[in-house]
Amino acid sequence: MLVAFVESFKYVGHLIPVACLRIFLGGYYLKHSIAAFQSDFLVKAYLAEDIRNHLPVSTAPDWFRWSLENAVIPNWQIFAIGVALAQAFIGASYIIGYLVRPAAIIGVLLSAGLMGAIGVGSANGAGNLAGIGLQATTFMLVLHLVLGWIGAGRCLGLDFFFYKRHRGLWW
Fold first, then answer.
1. Which pLDDT band, with edges at 50, 70 and 90, does 122 fall under?
2. Across the chain, what does the average pLDDT equal?
3. How far is CA 4 from CA 9, 101, 122, in A?
4. Based on the structure, what is the number of domains in the chain?
5. What is the residue range of 36's domain?
6. Is the full-model pTM beyond 0.85?
7. Which residues, at least 6 apart from 41, have a Cβ–Cβ distance to it below 8 Å?
8. C-alpha distance from residue 88 to each of 61, 70, 84 (Å)
9. CB-based burial, 51-73: b 16+ in 10 Å, e otherwise
10. Would 158 be classed as within a structural domain?
11. Which of 118, 138, 120 minimizes the C-alpha distance to 128?
């Protein structure tokens, strides 16, 4: 496996800036998931309160607002744990470069869900759900799409080891 790691520089060395971006984004997600587990995010209804306060001004589609009101707000603790675990998976995956494409898909789903909660056609263009603006959420969505499309785990990551031996969609 060490040989494959060294070979990843030779074959996909031009992706080193993308790999650095992947590792930085992984650290960002891991930091936020650790903060969620250490704080009272999983104990108090911060997620439900943020959604409940933002829904009257949100320009999200009616079906999405209905699902937030009837599924997410009553079951806020399950969704808070799911968000924290998804952030931890994305962070660990991006840092070690293993299963980057499935992690990117989960990141796209998280970003798309946040964009739906904020509302794509927000009046001021910078909705404020959990302190994240619409432009930042869109930027994160694009970053996840690019990292997944490129297969960013192949450089400075474990995905190159599996890509060499078992070519497939996930590597």
1. very low
2. 80
3. 9, 19, 47
4. 1
5. 14-151
6. no
7. 35, 47, 80, 84
8. 29, 26, 6
9. beebbeebebeeeebeebeeebb
10. no
11. 118
